[in-house]
Amino acid sequence: MKKIINTKHAPAPIGPYNQAILVGNTLYTSGQIAINPATGELVLDDIKTETQQVMENMQAVLNEANMTFDNVVKSSIFISDMNNFAQINEVYATYFDSNSAPARETVEVANLPKFVNVEISMIAIK
C-alpha cells in the first residue's frame, strides 16, 4: 500500500504528482527544483545556491517521511549544462558521507521544468 508524502516545507507540486510516495520502507521522491517553499520563487542566483535550495527541499521531503540523507540509496541528477557538474557535485557532497553515499547518475538534459539548471530525485529506504 502506498502512502502519499507531502510537506509545506518543500515546494508544492506543480502538476499531477506528489512530493513523494512511501511504499513499505521505500520512499520514491519526485524531482525537486530550486523553488523556495516560503515564497514560491525560484532561487537562481548561481548554480551553488540553486543546488543548495534543491537539496534543502529534498531534505524537507525526506524529513516528512521520517528519513534523512543517510537513508538515500539512489539519486538522479538532471542538469542543463554539464559544465556545472563540479559546482553541483561540490554542494551535493556536503549532504552525504562519502563512505556511504548513494548510487547516482547525472544526466545532461535539454530543458528542465521552469528552465532551471538542476533537478534531483531520490530513492530512500528505512
Named CATH topology: 60s Ribosomal Protein L30, Chain: A
Q: What share of residues are in beta strands?
A: 25-35%
Number of strands: 6
Rg from alpha-carbon coordinates: 14 Å
- Our count of helices gives 2
State the helical fraction.
10-25%
CATH class group: Alpha Beta
Give the structural class.
Answer: alpha+beta
Report the average pLDDT across residues: 97
Unreliable segments of 5+ consecutive residues: none
In total, the number of domains comes to 1
Q: Outline, from the CA principal axes?
A: globular
What order do the SSEs take from the amino end to the carboxyl end, as H and E?
Answer: EEEHEHEE
Give the full name of the CATH homologous superfamily: RutC-like
Order of neighbouring strands in the sheet with most strands: 1-2-3-6-4-5
The largest pleated sheet is described as: 6 strands, mixed
Protein name: Reactive intermediate/imine deaminase
InterPro entries: RidA, RutC-like_sf, YjgF/YER057c/UK114
GO molecular function: deaminase activity
GO cellular component, one term: cytosol
Task: Write structural notes for this entry.
- With 126 residues, the protein is of the alpha+beta class.
- It has a single domain (2-125), classed as 60s Ribosomal Protein L30, Chain: A (2-Layer Sandwich), CATH 3.30.1330.40.
- Helix content is 21%, strand content 27%.
- The protein contains two helices and six strands; from the N terminus they run βββαβαββ.
- A six-stranded mixed β-sheet has the order 1-2-3-6-4-5, with helices on one face.
- A hairpin with a 2-residue loop joins strand 2 and strand 3.
- Helix 1 packs parallel to helix 2.
- The longest helix has 18 residues, at 47-64.
- The radius of gyration is 14 Å and the shape is globular.
- This is Reactive intermediate/imine deaminase.
- One of its GO terms (cellular component) is cytosol.
- InterPro entries: RidA, RutC-like_sf, YjgF/YER057c/UK114.
- Belongs to the RutC family.
